Structure formats: C-alpha cells, structure tokens
Amino acid sequence: xxxxxxxxxxxxxxxxxxxxxxxxxxxxxxxxxxxxxxxxxxxxxxxxxxxxxxxxxxxxxxxxxxxxxxxxxxxxxxxxxxxxxxxxxxxxxxxxxxxxxxxxxxxxxxxxxxxxxxxxxxxxxxxxxxxxxxxxxxxxxxxxxxxxxxxxxxxxxxxxxxxxxxxxxxxxxxxxxxxxxxxxxxxxxxxxxxxxxxxxxxxxxxxxxxxxxxxxxxxxxxxxxxxxxxxxxxxxxxxxxxxxxxxxxxxxxxxxxxxxxxxxxxxxxxxxxxxxxxxxxxxxxxxxxxxxxxxxxxxxxxxxxxxxxxxxxxxxxxxxxxxxxxxxxxxxxxxxxxxxxxxxxxxxxxxxxxxxxxxxxxxxxxxxxxxxxxxxxxxxxxxxxxxxxxxxxxxxxxxxxxxxxxxxxxxxxxxxxxxxxxxxxxxxxxxxxxxxxxxxxxxxxxxxxxxxxxxxxxxxxxxxx
Amino acid sequence: xxxxxxxxxxxxxxxxxxxxxxxxxxxxxxxxxxxxxxxxxxxxxxxxxxxxxxxxxxxxxxxxxxxxxxxxxxxxxxxxxxxxxxxxxxxxxxxxxxxxxxxxxxxxxxxxxxxxxxxxxxxxxxxxxxxxxxxxxxxxxxxxxxxxxxxxxxxxxxxxxxxxxxxxxxxxx
Amino acid sequence: xxxxxxxxxxxxxxxxxxxxxxxxxxxxxxxxxxxxxxxxxxxxxxxxxxxxxxxxxxxxxxxxxxxxxxxxxxxxxxxxxxxxxxxxxxxxxxxxxxxxxxxxxxxxxxxxxxxxxxxxxxxxxxxxxxxxxxxxxxxxxxxxxxxxxxxxxxxxxxxxxxxxxxxxxxxxxxxxxxxxxxxxxxxxxxxxxxxxxxxxxxxxxxxxxxxxxxxxxxxxxxxxxxxxxxxxxxxxxxxxxxxxxxxxxxxxxxxxxxxxxxxxxxxxxxxxxxxxxxxxxxxxxxxxxxxxxxxxxxxxxxxxxxxxxxxxxxxxxxxxxxxxxxxxxxxxxxxxxxxxxxxxxxxxxxxxxxxxxxxxxxxxxxxxxxxxxxxxxxxxxxxxxxxxxxxxxxxxxxxxxxxxxxxxxxxxxxxxxxxxxxxxxxxxxxxxxxxxxxxxxxxxxxxxxxxxxxxxxxxxxxxxxxxxxxxxxxxxxxxxxxxxxxxxxxxxxxxxxxxxxxxxxxxxxxxxxxxxxxxxxxxxxxxxxxxxxxxxxxxxxxxxxxxxxxxxxxxxxxxxxxxxxxxxxxxxxxxxxxxxxxxxxxxxxxxxxxxxxxxxxxxxxxxxxxxxxxxxxxxxxxxxxxxxxxxxxxxxxxxxxxxxxxxxxxxxxxxxxxxxxxxxxxxxxxxxxxxxxxxxxxxxxxxxxxxxxxxxxxxxxxxxxxxxxxxxxxxxxxxxxxxxxxxxxxxxxxxxxxxxxxxxxxxxxxxxxxxxxxxxxxxxxxxxxxxxxxxxxxxxxxxxxxxxxxxxxxxxxxxxxxxxxxxxxxxxxxxxxxxxxxxxxxxxxxxxxxxxxxxxxxxxxxxxxxxxxxxxxxxxxxxxxxxxxxxxxxxxxxxxxxxxxxxxxxxxxxxxxxxxxxxxxxxxxxxxxxxxxxxxxxxxxxxxxxxxxxxxxxxxxxxxxxxxxxxxxxxxxxxxxxxxxxxxxxxxxxxxxxxxxxxxxxxxxxxxxxxxxx
Lengths: 465, 173, 998
Description:
The complex is a heterotrimer of chains A (465), B (173) and C (998). Chain A has helices at residues 20-32, 37-63, 78-102, 112-132, 161-194, 198-207, 215-248, 260-286, 295-326, 329-340, 344-356, 364-368, 370-397, 412-435, 441-455. By secondary structure, chain A is mainly α. In chain A, helix 4 runs antiparallel to helix 14 (412-435) and helix 5 packs antiparallel against helix 7. With 173 residues, chain B is α+β, with helices and mostly antiparallel strands. Chain B has helices at 12-24, 41-45, 52-78, 91-117, 148-160; strands at 2-9, 29-33, 138-143, 165-171. The longest helix of chain B has 27 residues, at 52-78. The radius of gyration of chain B is 26 Å and the shape is rod-shaped. The termini of chain B are close together. The N and C termini of chain C lie far apart (71 Å). In chain C, strand 34 (842-844) and strand 35 form a beta hairpin. Chain C is α/β, with parallel strands linked by helices and 998 residues long. In chain C, the strands form 13 sheets. A seven-stranded mixed sheet of chain C has the order 5-4-16-15-14-6-7, with helices on both faces. In chain C, strands 20-25-22-24-23-28 form a six-stranded mixed beta barrel. A four-stranded parallel sheet of chain C has the order 11-10-9-12. The chains are: A mainly alpha (465), B alpha+beta (173), C alpha/beta (998). Chains A and C meet through helix 5 and helix 10 of A and strand 32, helix 25, helix 26 and strand 36 of C.
C-alpha cells in the first residue's frame, strides 16, 4: 500500500507486529475457543427474532398479505422498503472486497471477509421480500422464463424492472457467494491443517479442495480474484441502479426521476458502510479482535460514510430543486407533501440521520470514539430505512387523482416482519463469525509482512496486492 | 516418482533469494509453497502470465449471447404481446439482463477454469510438502540432482540461502 | 319433503308457452312433481300446455329454479333432487345461454319495468325494460340490488305460526278460523300495506271489502307523500300525486325534494332531467333549497342551504312574489328566510318561464305542499309540467289514516290485521307503541319475507314471494301498466300475497288466474280496440309494459286552488319558531343506498358508497364544518341526538360541506335490529325522531347534540374531496362551446403504432349528464361478481368496486359545488400498468382492451402502484367463500347470484374493469351466429345499460358512424391525465355550467 498518512502510523492496520503464526492463532481463536458472553447474548436475541419472522411469514402465507396495512392507494410499503434496505446493506460488502481490492486499498484485508459475508446474508434477507410480498407466493416461479411451462408458451415481460431485479439479484448473490468462498479456500486449508478433531479435519478437508499453497495456484488465484473484483464492481453498481429503476421507470410522482440510479447507489454504499461499521464494532468487541480491526479501519469507514452521506444529502436537495424547477404539477405537490404532509416526520428523521449525522465525522475526535461511531452507525441504518419508506409510501399515498389518495398505517405484522428479518441476518452473521475464519488470515499475513518491511528497513511498501 | 529436495525458509526474503539463486545455478525449481501469495515470485520463478482472462471474456460473451437470444426469442419471436403499446423489440429494456448474464457467466466461468487448471476440487487430499505451509512456513521444492556432487552443491547453496531445513522426499511431478 | 320427488317422465319435453298452445285450455295433466298442492294448482294454472303434454316456461322454471335451490341446499333436501334440473331442458333454454324476460321491479313503489337476465334457470342480472316510456332501460341502485335480496339466505323458508314453522294448510286453517270468528263478531279487519301499485292486488282487496263490511285498507309508507296528497286534495279536490315532467321544465325549483336520488320516481325523473339539460338545448336553470347536500342539490345550478323549519317560508316567499306578478291581490308577504335577491331572481326566472317551469317540494308539511301547488298553478304549469289527470300512483301512504289505525288497534277496535310490505315496529313514529297496539289485535298476519321487527310480533307470518318469483302487475302512473312474471320457482316455501288473500277469502283461484282474469275483465277493455285476449296477453307479457292510450280519464281534478293564503299564514307562524342555542334542527332523509330500510340486509347496498358522503356501512349525522369546529366534533365522533320528546339516535358525525349550519342531516333506513346478519345494528335508526304534525309525518325534529365520547371508524370510499387544482374534472360554458373549445394537441407517440384489430372499444362519459346516482356501481358489481368486503376492509381503503364515482367539491365549504366523475379502468393504449407487470398478466387486446389475466397474476401490485387512475383492485384476502367475509359469496344461496360468465377472483390477484368483456364476446358471438354485422349500441356495458341519464356510451371508436366515435371527437371531449401519454380509450365530456340565478 502507499505511504501511510503520518498521523496514522499508529494505530496501524494491525497493531504491533505479530508473527505469522501468531496471526493464524489469533484468527483461529474464535473458532477454536468458546465465544464470549456478548456473543451468546446477541445470538439468543437474534434467534428469538428469527422465530418471530418464521411465525409471521407462515401466518402471512396462510392468510394473505391483507394482514399488512397495505391498501388500494399504497400497494407497497414495508415489504419493498425492507427489500431495498437489505439490498443496499449488501453493497458495502462487495464494495469493500472488490472495489477496494481494485484500488489496492490493502487496509480492507482484515474486514473484507466479514463484509462479504454480510453482503451474502443481506442479499438473502432482501431476497425474502419479493417472495413474501406477492399475492400468490406459491406461483413465484411464473416470474422465471422457464420452458416448457403448462401455461402454454407463456414467457415473462422483460420490459418489467421486476424481471430485471430477478436477474440482477440472483447474479449478484451468486457472484458474491463465489467470490467469498474463493477467498475462504486458503484459510479453510489453514484450519484443516490446524484441526485436531476428525470431523473438523474432514469438513475443512472437503471445503478447502486440497489447497496446498503452491505458488503456481496462488498466482492464478490472485488473477481470478482480480477478475471477479473487476466483474463485481460494475455488478454492484448495476444491481442498485436496477433496483432504483423499479421506481424510476414508473410514472408515479416521486418515483419517476432520472437521478435515482446514482442516488440509490450512493445511498446503498452509505447504508452498507453504516452496517459494516455496526457489525465490526460488535465483532471486535465480542471476539477480541481489536488488534486486527483497528481504530484505523473505523476511521477510514467513517470517512467513506461522510463522503457518501454528503452525496445522499446532495441527491435529496437535487430532487427538491428539480421538482421546483421542473414545474410539474404532480411532482411539485409530491415534494411539498413530502416535507409538509402527514409523513413529514419520516422525512425529517431521514434528513437528520442521513444528512446531518455523517457531518459529525469531520471531527477526528468523533472518528476515534468507538461509542459514538457505534451509535451514529445505527442512526445511519435507521435513516436509510426511512429514506426508502419515504420514497415508496409518501409517493404512493398521494399520486395523481386526489380521489385515490389514502394513508398507510403499519400493522403489527408489518413490524414483526421488519424486526424478524434482523433476526435472520444476525443469526447468520453470528454463526459465521463463530464457525468460519472471519478475517482473511492469508491476506492479513501479507499486510503484516509488508508492515514489517515498511517499519523495519523503511523500504517503500514493495508488495502490491 | 521423482526424488525432490524440500527446503523451508522462515521468511519471504530468504525464500526469494533462494529461488533466484537456485535458478541462476541451473537447479530445476519445481514449485514454491507459501501461506500467502508472495510477490516477486512470479519473476523469480519465471511463471508465464495465466491465460484465464481469455476464458472470462469467452464466458461473458456466451452470457451476452444467451441473454440476447432468450429475450429476443421469447418477447419478439415466440409470443409477441402488446405490452403498453411498446414495440416487441424494446431493445433498451433488454440491456440490463444482457449485462447481468454476461457478468454471471463470466464470473462462474473463470472460477470453474481456475479450479480445473489448478486441479482443485472438493475432497481432494492436499499434497503438503510441509505441514506448516498454510501457517507460516515457506518452502521451495527442487529436483534432487541425480549425481551426488551436484546434490552436495545444492545442499550447500540452500544452506547459505538460509534454509531452515532441507529434507528429501519423493513426489509425482 | 315432497318437492324432492323425482320428475315423472311426461315432463321431459317442454315448449315455451309464448310460442305454443293457448292458455285457456286450463290445467295440463298432472301438474308439476315439485311443490305442495297449492304450488301445483298455481303452476298448472299458469301452464295450460297442450294435451299432448307440452309444458310451459313456468314449469321449466319451476324445475330449474327449484333445482338450483335444491342443488344449493343439499343440507335440507334429499340429494337425488339435484338431478332434476339437468334432466329437463326446454327448446327455449340452452344451458349457458341467457334469456331475458320482462317483469316489474319490486324494489320500491316506483315500480320500474325490467328486463331480467335469466341464465340456467335463475335470474342473475336486473336490467331496465327499454320499451317503457317512463323508465326506459334505466334502473336505480336499489333495483339493481334486488336480485341479491332474492338470494338472501335469511329469508323465511316457510310460514310461521306464533314464531314456529308451520305448514301452509295448517296456517290457512287457523287464519280461516280466525277470520270466521271476526266475521261472526262483525269485527274490524284491516289490511295495512305499503303503497300498492298492482291493480290486480287492489282488485283482490276490493273483494275483501265486499267480504268484510268493516274492512279497511290503510296504506302506510315510512317516508310518505301524505302531505302532498293532502295538499292536492285541497288544490284539486282529490288526493293525488301529480305526474311530473321535468323534461318539459326549463326552470326547476326544488325545495328539499331529492327527485334525482330518492323522491317518488327517481329513475324516471333523472331521465327527464338529463333530457332537459343537454348541451343542445337552451340553458335551463335548476335551483335547489335544502338543508343537507342531496344528489339533486349536488347537481343544481344553484344550491341554497335552508333549515327544514324555513323550507315552507321559502315556498311562501316565492309564492308572494309570483302572486304579485300574477296580480293576485293581498298576497301575504312573509319575511324572507334567505337572501331576498336570490328569491327575487328565482321568482323572475319562474315568471319568465310560465308554463315551462316546475316547483317541487318533498316537505312533509301540507301547507308547504299547498303553497307549492299554488305556485305551479299560478305559473300555469298544471297540465304542462305536472299532470293531474294521469297522476302518479307511486306513493299513496296516508299518515293520518295510519295514526288513526294505531289508535283503533290500541283501543282494541281492530280484530284482524294483515300487514303487507310494512314494518312499522321499526319505521313508525313510535315503533313500540305500534307493537303494543299490535298485541291487542286478535289475529295479526304479516307477509314479511323475514322475521323482521314487526313479523316477530305477529301471530302468523305468511312469507310473500320475492317479486322475481312471482306473477304480478303494476300501474305506477295512471294508464301506464307493467306486468311481472316469475324468473325462478320459489326458492323457499313461500306464497304470493295475492294467492294468500284470495285463499283466505275461501276462493280457490291462484295468483296467475286472478291476474289473467283481472286483465281480461278490467285492463283489456280499457284498451281501445281490444283483440283476442291470449294474443294480447302474450304480447304484453313479452313486452312487459302496456300504455293505455286515448284521452286521459277525467280525474275530476278541478283546480279549486285551496286556501293557500291560510297556508302561507300557517307557515309564517311555524317559521318563527326556529330552534336556537343548543337546539339544532335534524333533517331526516332517505339515502340513495338504504331508502326506507327494506333492503337493509343487502350487502351490495350496505357497501355502496353514498353518492354525497362517499361513506358505506353506516348512516351519519352530516354536520356543517363550521358547526363541527364550534362543537369540537370531528368525523366519526358518535353523538346522541335527542328530541324533547325523548326519542334519540346515536350516529357518528361527518362534516359535510354545504350543510346548513343549524341543521344536521341523518339518513333513515339504517339501524335495523332484525333484518339479517349483514344489516343488523348498522348505523342508527332515525325514524323515531320524526313526529306527526297536522296529520302528516314531519321528517325533521329539534334535537340537542350530546357527544357520547365513543368514536367510530367511518368506512370512507374516498378520503380527499378537492381536486387540488388538477385538471381532472373539466368544466366549460356554453359561450366557450359556441366559440369552439380548442382541441388539446395529440401527444407524439414514442413508438411505431402497433397493428390492431378492426375494432377499438372505447367509452365516453358525459360529466354533464352524470348525477352521481351510483346505479352503475351496483350494476357493475352484479354483472362482474365484485366481492363485498365489509366495513373493516372498506375502512382500510380496500373497496373492490370496479367503477367508482369520484366526487369533488370546489368553492367554499358553506356553498360548495359538487362534481361527480365515474372512474374505472381507462383502458389506456399505452398502459403504464402493463409495462411493469413481470409475468405479462395484463396486456392490451387487439381491440384495445386492457385485459387482466387472473390465473397468471402473482400479485406484485406493481400495476396498481403504476396506475395513475388508481382503478385496480387487489384481493388482499380470499373474499369468496370465506366465513370471515360472510356476505353473499359465503353461502350457497347467495352464490346463486354470481354471473357464470365472469371468473370469481381468488386471493392474491389483481382485478379491474374489463369493459364487460363477456358482453362484448356475447355480442360478437351473436353477430357471428346470425351473420349480421355488429351494430353500434348492440353491445352495452352494465354501467351504460343501467344509467338513467345515458351518461355512459360504449362502442367501437374505429367505426366513424358510431355514437361513441362522434362523442369522443366532440369539442367537449377530453381524456383524464392525457398529458401522461397514457392514451385512454375512455374519454370524458366536460361538464357544462349553467347560469346562476343571482
């Protein structure tokens, strides 16, 4: 990596200069030892929420989506809000693992693994909603272009953004999964070779595909990682652009906007980094990995939040400006309604969390205080959820014909699904940090060696990765 | 079966030195085994740049074609319908899926190619020249010279390159 | 039961009675295998097939209808009967092909002529009979819904004696015995009935008069025109209701008469009204004085809010002015209750249009009615815009006679009472009083179709047929007759009232015979040039309507005038006592959906949004916004309205623009206690707050308002009433039209035009004609199996109606102007909903229809979100056959009303207006079969067919000669939200504002 900013020589990407073996031991520790109380606490809560999700989803499919607060005016609300929210969360993972890899930001090394895991789990959560929100989920397969089908030569409508979604999300999930697994292989091999138990040996043996650290493989492996990164980067941008087109290609005032794709991508990265921040702080505290997830990492993520948060704020302003400048009767009314209508509280909450909060990160003090970072990162998550809520519900509840205006009031089941999905997400994540190497050991070793070099005989960071 | 010498090193610098030297001295370095990708080894070993990117390109193009054919066939040829008065061939609307499928095929293709080329597959038992490879050991593998005199020279060379240990063993090369 | 016995073989061939055999051959051998003995006789009488065993449609219907019922009531009937209907088919009937039969509506006393669609032996859709000069092809919401009342599973399934089921012969014996006893004691027998328009039934009643010297027939209407009749008695020397001709009137002044919604004969009046106000005609003027906004008021050129106590004063003030102009000396000049300027202007207009103006009032005060009749007399309208020679017979209720009867009953002077079509325990001024009075009557009989409030209090309940099960006739207007014929055999063990009355007189004849005899002896002679009765009968039965031409019979209506000066004085005295302070006036009125409450168990009507308030599933106390603010009340707060007399009603308040600030309006007909699971305890009963004043039932009261603290979530179908300055309902003026309104420029098409079929189905809706009466809403519901979802779901804004009537206000909240806009799927050429559907479940047909494929839909609801008109409806739950939504679709009897041509939608799919695609298909099939090309107007959508004002026109836009094409290319035409580029095939004709009288 390039020269460190002088203010940041300490703390570094890894604190102290642990030996390679030490790194292995540290990273393997969570999987070999018993996790702390905090982990168990989190896990219990998550599983409880997961059960709430399962129960509600079952009832939902049994009775029908009438149990939600939806109505003739507002056909989408919490369901699609959650969908967009979770997709957005996913994006930071890919960004950290792929884009930072391309940009040679090696500081990503100790966080990219968990970030990717987060991506995969988030996309899984997001993927639930297109299914759950359907009137007839058991017919979900109608949306796939399969042949032959008993409905005659009946195909799907490739003009519909929902079909684009299906392709985008499934591609995104597949590529992220493959990328993540590929990165895991060397560490799985490490685990295999450390493993004592028979089962562990067997499992890791199968999963690590006979990895033996041959350099010929290493060099191909790195090329392919680069290729995947190169593919994943435009992919992640395309996915949220397409999600934004669910709205942008419609005629609904407040949806029908050309700035949605970039605006959504920025928002996604922003929310994603917020979530990464939350998770990493939880992890490093619960798994004692302060040494590898240093304040330096948090600091850099805070900077990213500051940047993307400001972009998002700018997008909000642009929307209002173009509504005023565009002179469209309905568009204008929508934005007046957004700021002064019955849902204005949601709008102002969103502005507070997404535009004002990140501005705190201008101050180094803030960026250095884990506590504040943790709280603000949660505020970021809340804010971004409400951004989607505002876009979806506020646009729908007062569209073109005033006779069709109405209100959306969430029911207990809306809430249950909302919180339940967090249960699913955290359960998966907690299991991951417990049972898989949650930090890319082999990459950290690389960084450690480099640091040894830069610190030792001050040679410029010779190694590039 | 061929006889080989496995020399292990504590760190990358010695390893690199050893590799360079060994090849200068015309020893046949079979391969190097490391816990993480050590850079500079490519040049040192003189490994040719992989052709995997071409595989990616090919797969991506396949994906693109699939997307075009799928959408063209279903929405234009097989059963055109009047959807909001839009033309059967709404080309612009077909672009997103073209992109997605290219990426999907490209990505899966390259990974598959890698696993094939590196002969990695689930359940394969790893051939480890040294148990510490995946932890902190760097190992260089050279063919054991047939004649005794060169063999001694090799040992001496490895010695001075700071090999932590040199062991003889046999392997399928 | 005996109905269940299998058919004898000889009934296997059947022939339509209208084509074969003469009727007077008497009984055909045997009679039908179904029904009890009485049924048999009646049936066979109707039949009269040839000796070779031909049968009549009636027989076939007997089997079919019974079969339909049997099939649905396997629970209580022997299973083998299910096979019966399938075994029988007449050459007149092809399974799956509907027939239409003329009959007469029994929904209310207006007695509209109908043409009912009957399919597979059951009536499934009510349509108007276009041969009727009074009503044309039109009907009202209530009429449309009566077919559902037929399939109400809570109708009585057999007669009851003292609350317990009993067999007919048993009941008849007991009643006969009872009557003999009364006859022996020369006791008093009274028939208390609602308005009877059937000449035959009246003839039967005459027989009773002969049989019992002390017999009395009292006519009672909960909402009567008693005052009008009384006034007419003074003015014309005879109690009558003039037959109004709004189409001849250029200037119409309505004083609290909702003649477009509920008053006397709304369908007929709405047709006339629309005809008189087309753009082609010179501008007319309609001024409405009323306390609360009514359908009529919402259509008036000028509406003036007036407290009920001041309505008489308005009439008097007008009369004073007109009298002066007419040179009537010493015309008392009472003080003006409203701005004199308005009254002056109105008077001038009226005077200017002497002879082609019309003043009407629904006031329940004889004096006011007399003043109004005098106005018309002085204006020379009598014989021009109101006809007293051929009067209307549609509301003959006599409040005074009723009061007297109740008195007699209380004092035990009545020994036998037969209640027909009335429910006084619920809707009389003092229901409890009537109940106790009833208990003093030795023999009390009700013909109620259910155990309602009154039926529960009588000895014998002898359920009458539903009118769709029964023969009958009607004479709504003197000389205008209409026949009824059954479209289905009685679903339950009921008996027509004529049948019962005749039988209790000990005469054997059955309804059908009585009817035919009456027409042979009474009606045909009135017809100039009488012919052979059978052909006359068959033709009339087929046409359904008969107009007795020739000169109007001298009704003996001499314009004696009456003491109108006295009336003015009386009014003057009354109007001085307008309640002040915490005492407000309460105006009771009939709502379009519930009317007088007879159909209160009809889910369609219960869920029909009120044309004005857009509320369903409850009546409310409409209150002026200012008054509500002043009293700190907001929508849904339940208040108790109590009179000094102690009568009270609890209803939620609803702030209603245009409401008179000192007046609340509450609809009667709600708050039934014993009508059925759908209608029980829905809203509050306003009837007890009315009172008897000078022999007429006053439909307003002085009340105090007391908030109960309780709150009710109102089931609103529309939440926002302002157009927010958006170009949605466009208005124009005659001047503008004369100048030739500029056409909006066609938006460029982004894409090449797609190849389309030869036809392009389209629709135009004339906002100038639409009165908002909402008949189309129910017609669509009946035609398209639209689900009823109940109060909770409506309150959650999930109402399923495919066509809704949007109602917007403009102007101030005190003097708002209302516009009504029917809104349904606009069948866009470039439909936003289609592009976004992932599974191609909605696409455009080659004939321009936006079609919804239910079995392909997975319910993403993206289409609904993207529909600018918000006309798509989603099945949030399974609304059919679901005990949670226990309306007609949840029980086997109620399901009989479903239209087999239209899919019943399942849970989780989107639905919307299909432009009655099943009717289009039927029309095209017909033209293919006959080889004749489709003519314009041959296919009519349900909403178009029912519309009294002909506001909706459907047809082929590609056919340059078609009406719809001509209208769609008129300069009044515009398309809603056209600037979105949706290219709707439905276009609207701008509303034309008439002048105002100030």
